[in-house]
């Protein structure tokens, strides 16, 4: 079976879901859905032995060959790791959701369709080698995540959370597209593999920094890094299986995947190292500090997810430093990429189980408010055990997988202090310090999560439901994950060899050529080294602070809400909404006079600027005809009539003066020897003056008031400007004729070719008869329009106004 | 001969200006309409003289047209003063 088509398996299965839901409503739809990720998981797992040896697989499916766009599935260690996470945790989440969502009350067909779309999208993101299709799947994850967060669309908070995550992730996605386009221009290919191959040349390119920043924006928004993490806590309104799947194990890791995938291209840049490491560490400490502020179980987990993602991000940044270090494979720098991937696996496992436990607690007690919960240990022993394992792993306590990744994290951060390029020797000492403080807070919130939920006093009167243990089916998926957490501690090197090292190879191809060369051996006991003492310090300080939590936790409530990033986001949304409204209200006055003023104003501006820029103010007087006396007289009459039209006190005078203008023009036609024009002009002018008089006669009495047009400086300026501009254009055009007129041809052939004497008429009906045809059409339309306007008085039927 | 045409043109132009004065000033509507009618005739003369000066016979159609327009206009105005409308509606509509 071809790899590339497997990506689309879930979305094809999604087509069947509504049918199954409608026709087989006795069986929970989730059972049918479960088949898809399980099959995929088994299939992808069968690739493990080959990727372990550094093997890669590609499979191609042409989409738009003429534009060089194709779906290319590329499976190496990194892609396979993510594919296994997506399908593996996907299977567990689907299993969990069959017990979590009620088949009678919930719209399961919607839920599973969205979930399967999401699965396809994620598989596409992690397997695409083509940047455009990667972007396509990336946006599909944003959209399906939007649908899943807003699953309970009747709730305001769900819709708000869905919109917020959509706005932020789509913003990042579009930025990323920009970065991809720049990269494809730089490398003249869309393939990531080919770009990695030509990475050394790309660094020199002027777009390099732009592409770097734009792609990082995409990665940071998706992976909820500072300051874009704000959508993740609000996305907790989604059903818990969604939170467990999307917002801990898969989607938020898409950004990490992107950073890991592009590290070989961008590692050469110091900016990349600084941004990824710095933002990651800052996110880690920020979110771990604010996790303790949360009162909602899922809120705590959301912030802890953000914090852990920051941790992994900083490790990825540190792994990019390996590019700048001589012989990095033999120094402590080799730990960074390994630690990043190792912790990524760990995090997906324990965070998935913790979310599921939070869902169980919510499901069985009816609340997620940590202040109302407590003392559930004896009521829900299995959930407690699972939560304890997950939390202790998150805190980094021995016997659980998290301990090992925390140790390697500290090792990598300590290694940075020895790093010399980019003046890291000056600021480098900050990195382990921040990492340590972040870990202390991680320790505290892990205990806060589990102990404040399960120990302490049971408060049955505050709980909406009578608390009891969850059904067994709901406990199986988190129990499997908890077992994995413990298993990872005892067999870290199996996980390392099978999964982590091939992925490290994909991140650091500049260091290694095969997975065996990744010389990292994880062991639970390193001997007495700095990392161990730091870990002991974390336990000591964290334990002390947790002991005193009740004393200092109220400090968080004193922090003003107005200065948070959420209110900044709300303010920006409000500002863009009301600002755009106010801006359009500013210029969209609804008065034609305003719009005419804009049009004429811009006309003047554009014409005069163009004339100035092309230096066209050239007036040539050589080609001018002599001015006759009679022409001067008519011109004076014309100007006088025009001034009368403008300055007339009554409308009647203006109409008559306008008639005078028309007749003067007819006279001009006479003296410029255009008899046909003069004839037509006279008749038309007479008719239009008659029509003006008709319109005047039917004016309402009170608007026939004799009143001059009021003088407005702005209008006068615009009128003057338009006149001057047109005069300048006409003069300029007249002085700079490039080609001779075509009229000589007409003059010579009017009789010989067309058999006519009147050159104007022959042009009208013979040489250029098409214009005449459509002017006849115009007249016809005008006539029909007038008839319909007079005859069809629909408003008359509605009674009253306007028409007599 | 050309001088003669020019002088005639000048005289008619003066008449034109005098008629214009009456058109603007004329106390009653009837004064104005008569002035307008005479203006039309003056215009006819001007165009006739111009066609002599320009030595062309193509403007004779304009002269005819102007005469017709001036007549129709005057009649229409006269009817408007007399009846208040220009086109009578058929009584049965």
Automatic annotation (TrEMBL), chain A:
Domain of life of the native organism: Bacteria
Main subcellular location of this protein, as a coarse class: membrane
Keywords assigned: Antiport, Cell membrane, Hydrogen ion transport, Ion transport, Membrane, Sodium, Sodium transport, Transmembrane, Transmembrane helix, Transport
Gene Ontology terms describing biological process: proton transmembrane transport; sodium ion transport
Sample GO molecular function, one term: antiporter activity
Gene Ontology cellular component list: plasma membrane
Domain MrpA C-terminal/MbhD: 637-700
Domain NADH-Ubiquinone oxidoreductase (complex I) chain 5 N-terminal: 64-111
UniProt membrane topology term: Multi-pass membrane protein
Localization per record: Cell membrane; Membrane
Residue spans crossing the bilayer: 6-24, 31-49, 69-96, 108-126, 132-154, 166-187, 207-232, 244-266, 272-292, 299-323, 335-361, 382-404, 429-451, 472-491, 532-549, 595-618, 630-648, 655-672, 678-697, 709-731, 773-794
Family: Belongs to the CPA3 antiporters (TC 2.A.63) subunit A family.
Protein name (database record): Multicomponent Na+:H+ antiporter subunit A
Organism annotation: Planococcus koreensis
Highest classification ranks of the organism: Bacteria, Bacillati, Bacillota, Bacilli, Bacillales
UniProtKB/TrEMBL annotation, chain B:
Segments crossing the lipid bilayer: 6-24, 33-53, 59-81
Keywords: Antiport, Cell membrane, Ion transport, Membrane, Transmembrane, Transmembrane helix, Transport
CC terms in the record's Gene Ontology section: plasma membrane
N-terminal signal peptide: none
Matches recorded under Pfam families: MrpF_PhaF (PF04066)
Location relative to the cell: Cell membrane
Keyword Ribosomal protein: no
Domain of life the protein comes from: Bacteria
Membrane topology: Multi-pass membrane protein
Molecular function via GO: sodium:proton antiporter activity
Family label: Belongs to the CPA3 antiporters (TC 2.A.63) subunit F family.
Protein name: Multicomponent Na+:H+ antiporter subunit F
Origin organism lineage: Bacteria, Bacillati, Bacillota, Bacilli, Bacillales
């Amino acid at each position: 079976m071809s790899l590339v088509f497997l990506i689309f398996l879930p979305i094809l299965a999604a087509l069947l879901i509504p049918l199954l839901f409608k026709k087989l409503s006795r069986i929970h739809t989730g059972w049918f859905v479960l088949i898809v990720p399980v099959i995929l998981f088994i299939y992808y797992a069968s690739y493990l032995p080959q990727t372990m040896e550094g093997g890669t697989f590609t499979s191609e499916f042409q989409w738009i060959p003429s534009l060089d766009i194709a779906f290319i599935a590329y499976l190496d260690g990194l892609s396979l790791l993510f594919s296994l996470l997506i399908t593996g945790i996907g299977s567990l989440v689907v299993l969990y959701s069959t017990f979590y969502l009620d088949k009678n009350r919930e719209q399961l067909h919607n839920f599973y369709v969205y979930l399967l779309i999401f699965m396809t999208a994620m598989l596409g993101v992690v397997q695409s080698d083509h940047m455009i299709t990667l972007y396509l799947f990336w946006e599909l994850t944003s959209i399906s995540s939007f649908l899943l967060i807003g699953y309970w669309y009747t709730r305001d908070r769900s819709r708000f959370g869905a919109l917020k995550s959509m706005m932020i992730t789509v913003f990042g996605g579009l930025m990323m597209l920009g970065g991809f386009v720049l990269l494809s221009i730089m490398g003249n290919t869309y393939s990531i593999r080919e770009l990695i191959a030509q990475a050394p040349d790309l660094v020199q390119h002027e777009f390099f920094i732009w592409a770097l920043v734009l792609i990082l924006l995409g990665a940071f928004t998706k992976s909820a890094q500072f300051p874009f993490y704000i959508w993740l806590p609000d996305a907790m309104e989604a059903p818990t299986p969604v939170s467990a799947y999307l917002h801990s194990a898969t989607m938020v890791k898409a950004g990490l995947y992107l950073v890991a995938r592009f590290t070989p291209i961008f590692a050469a840049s110091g900016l990349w190292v600084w941004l990824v490491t710095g933002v990651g560490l800052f996110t880690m400490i920020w979110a771990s500090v604010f996790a303790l502020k949360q009162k909602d179980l899922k809120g705590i987990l959301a912030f802890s997810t953000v914090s852990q993602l920051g941790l992994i991000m900083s490790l990825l940044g540190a792994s990019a430093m390996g590019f700048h270090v001589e012989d990095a494979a033999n120094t402590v720098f080799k730990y960074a990429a390994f630690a990043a991937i190792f912790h990524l696996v760990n995090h997906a496992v324990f965070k998935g189980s913790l979310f599921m436990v939070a869902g169980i607690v919510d499901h069985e007690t009816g609340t997620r408010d940590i202040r109302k919960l407590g003392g559930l240990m004896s009521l829900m022993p299995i959930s407690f055990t699972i939560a304890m394992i997950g939390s202790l792993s998150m805190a980094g306590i021995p016997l659980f997988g998290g301990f090992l990744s925390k140790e390697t994290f500290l090792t990598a951060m300590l290694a940075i202090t020895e790093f010399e390029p980019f003046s890291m020797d000056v600021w480098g000492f900050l990195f382990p310090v921040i990492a340590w403080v972040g870990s202390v807070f991680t320790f505290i919130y892990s205990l806060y999560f589990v102990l404040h939920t399960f120990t302490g006093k049971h408060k049955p009167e505050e709980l909406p439901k009578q608390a009891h243990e969850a059904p067994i089916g709901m406990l199986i998926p988190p129990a499997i994950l908890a077992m994995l957490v413990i298993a990872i501690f005892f067999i870290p090197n199996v996980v390392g060899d099978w999964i982590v090292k091939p992925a490290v190879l994909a991140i650091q191809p500049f260091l290694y050529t095969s997975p065996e060369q990744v010389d990292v051996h994880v062991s639970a006991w390193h001997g007495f080294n700095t990392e161990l003492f730091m870990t002991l310090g974390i336990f000591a300080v964290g334990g002390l602070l947790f002991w005193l939590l009740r004393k200092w936790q109220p400090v968080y409530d004193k922090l003003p809400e107005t200065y948070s990033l959420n209110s900044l986001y709300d303010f920006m949304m409000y500002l863009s909404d009301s600002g755009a409204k106010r801006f359009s209200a500013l210029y969209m006055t609804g008065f034609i006079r305003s719009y005419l003023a804009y049009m004429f104003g811009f006309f003047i501006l554009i014409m005069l600027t163009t004339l100035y820029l092309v230096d066209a103010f050239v007036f040539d007087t050589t080609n001018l005809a002599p001015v006759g006396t009679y022409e001067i007289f008519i011109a004076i009459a014309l100007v006088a009539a025009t001034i009368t039209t403008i300055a007339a006190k009554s409308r009647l005078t203006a109409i008559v003066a306008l008639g005078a203008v028309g007749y003067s023009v007819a006279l001009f036609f006479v003296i410029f020897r255009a008899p046909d024009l003069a004839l037509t002009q006279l008749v038309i002018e007479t008719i239009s003056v008659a029509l003006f008089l008709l319109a005047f006669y039917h004016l309402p009495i009170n608007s026939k008031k004799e009143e001059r047009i009021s003088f407005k400086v702005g209008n006068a300026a615009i009128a003057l400007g338009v006149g001057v501009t047109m005069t300048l254009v006409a003069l300029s055009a007249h002085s700079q004729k490039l080609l001779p007129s075509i009229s000589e041809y007409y003059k010579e052939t009017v009789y010989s070719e067309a058999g006519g004497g009147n050159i104007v008429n022959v042009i009208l009906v013979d040489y250029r008869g098409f214009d005449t045809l459509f002017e006849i059409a115009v007249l016809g339309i005008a006539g029909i329009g007038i008839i319909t306007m007079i005859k069809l008085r629909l408003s008359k039927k509605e009674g009253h106004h306007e028409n007599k | 001969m050309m001088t003669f045409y020019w002088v005639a043109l000048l005289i008619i132009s003066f008449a034109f200006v005098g008629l214009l004065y009456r058109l603007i000033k004329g106390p009653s509507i009837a004064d104005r309409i008569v002035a307008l009618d005479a203006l039309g005739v003056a215009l006819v003369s001007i165009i006739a003289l111009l066609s002599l000066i320009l030595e062309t016979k193509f403007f004779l159609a304009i002269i005819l047209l102007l005469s017709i327009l001036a007549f129709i206009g005057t009649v229409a105005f006269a009817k408007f003063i007399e009846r208040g409308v220009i086109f009578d509606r058929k009584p049965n509509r």
